[in-house]
Amino acid sequence: MLQVKGTEGYSAATERFMTATHKIAFQDLHQSFLKFIPTDSSNVLDVGSGIGRDAAALADMGHTVVAVEPTSEFLSAAQKLYGTSIEWINDSFPFLPSLGDRNEGFDFVLASAVWHHLDQHERRITLSRIADLLRPTGIFALSLRHDPAGVGTHIFPTDGQETVRDAERVNLKPLQVLGNQPSLVKGKRNVTWTRIVLQKI
């Protein structure tokens, strides 16, 4: 299994993470992304898939889903919870080597609550990698956490406008940038999010 710095702190909190995840529905957490998810059956990638809630919701919509998660405890839990209809992969940003070229490409890529675990250099590599994996007009939806740290201990400040500027350098144009979004987790009043939708041009 991978040893990824961004996963530090998560393995010891698997049960707590599972409980918190199941308290929030996919449709509530990703309400601002829903209109950008393809309605026809499509190839979808969920990176940092955690215990699989989002991947399962996307599969239930009729999509072919690849779920990438570097934390072995989460990946094991996801496979037990949601079965084999999803392709589960132990891998991580920024390079996603296990995906290879994926010549068929992805129509929609989701990265929820992982951006703050990447430094600026890794984020730029990630955006370039996603641009390569997306089909023309494909969508990349990501959420950026702002202050303070949660379970994960390897974190970096995030900036929505900086992310958009870096995305535009690799031909990903912004379709939506929503800043100062509140956390849906109880007791996280000091945590806000920026939710960004990018499209390959």
UniProtKB/TrEMBL annotation:
GO terms classed as biological process: methylation
PANTHER family named in the record: METHYLTRANSFERASE (PTHR43464), UBIQUINONE BIOSYNTHESIS O-METHYLTRANSFERASE, MITOCHONDRIAL (PTHR43464:SF19)
Cell membrane recorded as keyword: no
Record domain Methyltransferase: where: 44-138
UniProt-listed SUPFAM superfamilies: S-adenosyl-L-methionine-dependent methyltransferases
Gene Ontology molecular-function annotations: methyltransferase activity
Name the record gives this protein: Methyltransferase, putative
Keyword Metal-binding recorded: no
CDD domains per record: AdoMet_MTases
Keyword field: Methyltransferase, S-adenosyl-L-methionine, Transferase
